[in-house]
TrEMBL record:
The keyword Hydrolase does not apply. It is found in: Cytoplasm. Residues 1-22, 849-881 are annotated as: Disordered. The lineage of its organism: Eukaryota, Metazoa, Chordata, Craniata, Vertebrata. It comes from Dicentrarchus labrax. The keyword Cytoplasm applies. This is RAB3 GTPase activating protein subunit 2 (non-catalytic). Belongs to the Rab3-GAP regulatory subunit family. Residues 26-444 form the Rab3-GAP regulatory subunit N-terminal domain.
């Protein structure tokens, strides 16, 4: 059989066969096992073995050191052909009361390929031999007692587990311990009596036949576990189905994990105290159909046994072997191509490392049965575990000092192919160590301690055991792996632990007497400067100063270097202030483009009087007149006029803000003067806000100086109250906000808010003295306030953009947080709508800009970064109008609710109505409302016509909105989060939503009147519009559109219908005359508005249907008028829609006769051919043509082909039995003859 190597629970490691075909050093072919006490090493190959015991010897320099020397050699096998396949060294605890944890003696357990397991003393004396199964022993592993670290952890029993290719034997640890002690005593007695006969006591063991796995090469006995109720119910449901019942208390089970192939990892569970199959702990009591005998017979089918005859021959000489109890696999990790090679159980019994033939190391979570981590590139890896307790020094500074000591878990991986030993923190931790070692070493990991220990006997013991050792066969060195506990901690938690580690390092150096003074100085200096915590730094300095061996020169240099570093730290700006100013610079760069545009718009020259200027020098008399000394001896500033206050502030602080005056000197002087910090703050803010233009020329420098001044004022006595709770509002910072809220200088207010916000945050952080980020009501107020000021700055920048020359007047509106909050929810939209009016933006242009905003938002989400980089270049190349549009888009993005397109259009509409009401003649309306008709409307013809057209549009919009009101839900009016709490008049939208809905028939009735008026005004038709309606219709006019009125119904008076018809026919005639164009085959397109608009005929037809006028009469009239005007192509289009073709044919026959009469009789250029043609015509036709009056034609001279086409149409539409059909035929002949003559 091929040996597989093990890096699991025992110390024994077996050599993997070299894949390259080259044999490594001799140790690679040996079975190696080591005692966890590091006092016994066993090396075995085939039948022979060597035992090496620990001995103290003197080295060449005379120092004592421990070595492992050969204590016994010999042959272990007794049966022919058997070889050693596995081994473990188990130290047995002493039973004496005086014992302190050292082992009494060590038992060497050896497994053979014959199936025998034999137990030896350290001197190679055989104590016990057992044949538990007739297959080669693959693995021996041991588990010993471990003190539970936490309450509730199941106490594990000691045991020795023996793995065979298809069976697992577990020997109870207590029984084995007693048996080995008894055997050792018997051997001692027999040796004394000269006898070799030993009667071995029976061993208590369990034997499980592991089923459902193709090959097994290694195992781990995890121990006893108890399922939680949820897992018990889950298993019952999965295995027992819907009707499964669950036992009251889940029984304890032993868990075994195996690795190999098919599946790659298998999980087995055996119920304690029962030999029933695995599933007995749930409701399914499935009896195994494989009896033990059948199982043994089946092993031959599975290929585990050799030739039957050979097997029977051997069995005759061997003792009887008990059959195995079948144990079915619960579940596994299936991976058909991957084969496990070894498994190594962690000391806490919850994790296991598994190696495989793909060069992977997998980490298993044994409770969940899943793989939680995997490492690549570790072919032939060997594994071990290290569990490191927290040091006592670390516990003193730990927040969990009262809890049990913490333990850190590390996985050790030895990769022989790369010659590297790595240490990884569990479970998802980083690699904390890596060491270059030889390529032929063996990693020895026991995974157990002393056998025979229990909770009573282990009290007060110090168990001296090594967890992981590395044996190098080249040098013969045996090295142990030790890891500091703090490597398992994260950076923040381990700072103090690292400092303790540095302190220990310094202490070790100071204790050593052989260190050179130069080395001592450099090491002590680096350690003292690296330690972060002041308390530990002080402790290190004290230990250095109290050391007698350190030279005085070394002490002075180290303390001098430390003093210089501390002094330099004091001079530097405090970290919170430095961090806060870095934050301000970031915010400045973010709002930089807006500030720049704002500065350009506000830098236009203005006129002011010199005596009112706050920048003029302040005379001493004026300065003293504003100062007052109180009874308490304090100095108080008298607040006079705004100009005087600003001049005083300018005198005190402008030099500091510009950088011309020493900041701290000025602050110290003011503090000594005794002026209250609140008054100084008010003066500082007044000059800052007043001199916005100068400040914006060098914003970076002035903001830095303001930051320094504000912090200096905040640190004055009486500024920020000592008793101020950081979770409440500070009156000091509230004063800053109150001043900025009222300021119309948006840029200065925003920069002051940036500075104050950061200063307040630094102040709160220093008060809390916590690593966590401070969260308080004060900071929340600042976040909202800064957001509001940013919004105001962008809005103010837009409002400052000057309108194009010649546009509507009005100065730019000034806005602040106060004005916007008092303007109500519609105040922002109202300001923007006034700006839109001043810039005379058409609705189409406004809609286009808002559409760009939506597109931009979508692009920003995809390419935010790219957009920011290219923004500056675009702005340079774009025109002012495009920059203005971008600014409007930016404002709309900052106010997505207040400036939603619908709200903005509604406010713009209202603004135009207000402005039109002031001057109806000049201002052209884009969107209008209905107004009351009076005799004198105060408008000229053009303005009135345009106004009536807008009225029609508005009434049509009202009808469309009313018809869709049930389908579309009412809009929800919301405000941006930063602008909640606005108080003021209700917005247009809120008022509109409170209005009642219109009465559709009444609106339609008014729309009818407006359309008739618009038609009359457009075509200059004289008509009394109210005469076209009956009494009911007249009474319904000019009522509130939301009321229900008595409307006209039923058939109208024929005389009224006749009047209406006559008016509509006049409108059609006027339209035809308006569109008179040069005749051609295809008519040119018509405009969309004005008297030539193409929609007039369809509107007349709609009005006709509402006014009970026959639409076919209107169509026939339109066809005749178009032919009369010579617009034959347009007439042919309309002719297709005429229903009564007979009447139309009669009308067109007369029109054709008039055209022909003009060509033959009335044309000034009559030819002889025409006269001859007239003579040839039938007498009736000649008489009829002479009776025609061509003067009725507005366009008598029409090309003959058009007239010929018209006659052809006549023949088509007139029926043959028509009275004038023959006349039409004669006309056709005459036209054809005339065309031929031409």
């Amino acid at each position: 059989w091929e040996s597989a190597w093990d890096s699991g629970d025992n110390k024994e490691e077996e050599a993997a066969t070299e894949t390259t075909g080259q044999s490594g050093p001799w140790l690679q072919d040996c079975v190696v096992a080591m005692s966890p006490c590091s006092d016994l090493l066993v090396v075995a190959r085939e039948q022979k073995a060597v035992f090496l015991s620990a001995k103290w010897r003197s080295n060449d320099s005379g120092r004592e050191e421990m070595t492992l020397a050969v204590s016994w050699t010999g042959t272990l096998s007794t049966d022919e052909g058997e070889c050693v396949s596995s081994s473990v060294c188990i130290p047995l605890a002493s039973q004496k009361r005086s014992s302190t944890g050292r082992p009494d003696w060590t038992c060497v357990v050896v497994g053979f390929t014959s199936g025998y397991v034999r137990f030896y003393t350290e001197n190679g004396v055989l104590l016990l031999a057992q044949l538990l199964h007739e297959d080669p022993v693959l693995r021996l592993k041991c588990r010993t007692y471990e003190i539970p670290r936490h309450p509730g952890v199941t106490e594990q029993h000691e045991e020795l587990s023996i793995l065979y290719p298809a069976a697992l034997v577990t020997i109870d640890g207590f029984s084995l311990f007693q048996s080995l002690r008894a055997c050792r005593n018997q051997v001692a007695r027999a040796a004394a009596a000269g006898s070799d006969v030993i009667q071995p006591p029976p061993l208590a063991y369990k034997k499980w036949g592991l089923q459902d796995m193709d090959t097994i090469v290694d195992h781990s006995s995890v121990g006893i576990m108890t399922l939680c109720v949820f897992d018990q119910m889950k298993n019952a449901s999965i295995l027992g189905g819907f009707n499964a019942s669950v036992k009251g208390s889940p029984p304890a089970m032993s868990q075994y994990v195996t690795v190999g192939g098919g599946p790659y990892t298998g999980f087995y569970y055996a119920v304690e105290g029962s030999s029933q199959p695995l599933l007995s702990h749930v409701a399914l009591a499935v009896a195994s159909k494989l009896t033990s005998a059948l199982f043994n017979a089946a092993s031959g089918w599975l290929g585990w046994n050799k030739n039957k005859n050979e097997e029977e021959a051997v069995q005759k000489q061997k003792p009887k072997v008990e059959p195995a109890t079948p144990l079915g696999i619960r579940f596994g990790l299936p991976d058909s191509r991957r084969h496990g090679e070894s498994i190594c159980l962690s000391p806490c019994n919850t994790l296991a490392g598994v190696t495989d033939d793909f060069g992977r190391v997998s980490l298993l979570d044994l409770a969940r049965g899943i793989s939680i981590r995997m490492w690549k590139g570790y072919r032939d890896a060997q594994l071990g575990w290290l569990q490191v307790p927290e040091e006592r020094g670390d516990r003193e500074f730990s927040p969990s000092a009262s809890l049990p000591r913490r333990h850190a878990l590390f996985l050790v991986i030895y990769a022989p192919r790369r010659g590297i030993l790595e240490v990884w923190a569990m479970q998802q931790g980083p690699r904390v160590g890596a060491f270059t070692v030889g390529k032929h070493c063996r990693l020895l990991y026991a995974g157990y301690r002393l056998m025979g220990v229990n909770s009573v006997t282990s009290q007060g013991w110090q168990l001296h055991t090594q967890q992981v050792c590395l044996l190098d066969p080249i040098t013969g060195a045996l090295r142990t792996v030790n890891i500091p506990f703090h490597l398992a901690l994260s950076d923040k938690k381990s700072e103090r632990a690292k400092d303790m580690h540095l302190l220990k390092r310094l202490t070790t150096i100071l204790r050593s007497r052989e260190v050179e003074p130069d080395i001592l100085e450099s090491e002590a200096k680096s350690v003292l400067l690296d330690i972060k915590h002041p308390a530990i730094k002080k402790q290190a300095l004290e230990s250095l100063l109290s050391n007698k061996n350190a030279p005085v020169s070394c002490l002075t240099k180290v303390t001098g270097a430390l003093y210089d570093v501390l002094k330099q730290q004091d001079k530097l700006l405090s970290p919170t202030q430095q961090d806060s100013f870095e934050g301000i610079e970031e915010e400045l760069s973010r709002v930089g483009p807006t500030l720049q545009r704002y500065a350009q718009l506000t830098s236009r020259p203005s006129v002011s009087f010199a005596q009112d200027s706050p920048y003029s020098p302040l005379p001493a008399q004026a300065f003293l007149s504003q100062m007052e000394c109180t009874e308490d001896g304090e100095l108080r500033v008298i607040r006079g006029s705004e100009t005087e206050w600003n001049r005083l502030g300018n005198f005190m602080f402008w030099g500091c803000l510009c950088g011309n005056s020493p900041l701290h000197k000025v602050c110290d002087t003011l503090q000594e003067a005794g002026i209250s910090p609140q008054q100084l703050l008010s003066l500082l803010l007044s000059v800052w806000l007043q001199r916005e233009k100068e400040m914006l020329q060098k914003p970076g420098e002035t903001v830095r100086n303001l930051h320094t001044l504000l912090i200096a004022l905040s640190n004055m006595k009486g500024a920020v109250e000592e008793s101020w709770d950081t979770q409440s509002i500070s009156p000091w910072w509230q004063q800053v906000r109150h001043t900025c809220i009222q300021s119309h200088n948006s840029a200065a207010a925003l920069l002051a808010a940036f500075v104050a916000h950061r200063a307040a945050k630094a102040s709160i952080t220093s008060r809390l003295q916590s690593e966590w980020e401070a969260v308080s009501l004060e900071l929340e107020q600042w976040v909202v306030f800064v957001r509001q000021l940013e919004d105001v700055l962008v809005l103010q920048t837009l409002l400052l953009v000057p309108p194009p020359q010649g546009s509507g007047g009005g100065a730019a509106a000034q806005c602040s947080i106060k004005t916007l909050m008092e303007g109500g929810t519609g105040g922002i939209a109202d300001s923007v709508s006034k700006w839109v009016f001043r810039h005379n933006l058409s609705p189409e242009r406004l809609k286009e800009i808002l559409q760009k905003r939506e597109d931009k938002e979508a692009e920003d989400k995809l390419e935010q970064k790219a957009g920011e980089e290219g923004k500056e270049q675009e702005e340079k190349s774009q025109e002012d109008t495009d920059r203005t549009a971008e600014l409007l888009v930016a404002v709309c993005q900052r106010f997505p609710h207040s400036l939603s397109p619908d709200l903005l259009f509604a406010h713009c509409c209202w603004e135009y109505v207000v402005q039109w009401n002031k001057d109806p003649e000049v201002i052209k309306l884009h969107i209008l409302m209905m107004c009351v008709c009076v005799q004198d409307v105060g408008m000229g013809d053009k303005a009135a016509t345009y106004f009536l057209g807008c009225c029609v549009q508005l009434l049509q919009i009202l009808m469309e909105a009313d018809s869709a009101v049930e389908e579309v839900p009412a809009p929800e009016l919301s405000v941006e989060e930063a602008w909640f709490g606005a108080e003021g008049p209700a917005s247009i939208a809120e008022l509109a939503l409170e209005q009642r809905g219109v009465h559709y028939p009444l609106v339609q009735h008014h729309c009818l009147l407006a359309s008739l008026l618009h038609s009359a005004m457009t075509f200059s038709l004289k008509v009394k519009p109210l005469s076209l309606f009956d009494s009911k219709g007249k009474n319904a006019f000019f009522r509130d559109l939301t009321t229900i009125q008595l409307m006209p119904s039923g058939d109208m008076d024929p005389g009224l219908i006749s009047l209406r018809q006559e008016f509509l026919l006049r409108v059609l005639t006027a339209w035809v005359q308006a569109i008179d164009d040069s005749s051609g085959t295809s008519p040119p397109p018509l405009p969309s508005s004005g008297p030539k608009a193409d929609w007039w005929p369809s509107m007349c037809l709609e009005l006709g249907s509402l006014l009970q006028v026959n639409p076919d009469i209107l169509r026939r009239h339109l066809v005749c008028e178009l032919y009369n005007q010579g617009l034959d192509p347009r007439a042919e289009e309309v002719m297709l829609e005429v229903e009564d073709k007979d009447v139309l044919g009669s009308q067109l026959l007369v029109l054709t006769g008039q055209r022909l009469s003009y060509s033959l009789l009335h044309s000034q250029s009559q030819t002889q051919a025409a006269m001859e043609l007239l003579a040839r015509l039938p007498p009736t036709l000649c008489t009829w043509l002479k009776a025609m009056d061509p003067g009725e034609l507005r366009c008598p001279l029409v090309p003959l082909p058009q007239t010929s086409r018209l006659v052809g149409r006549l023949i088509e539409i007139l029926p043959e039995n028509h009275a004038q059909y023959s006349l039409a035929l004669h006309l056709l002949e005459a036209v054809e003859a005339l065309t031929t003559e031409d």
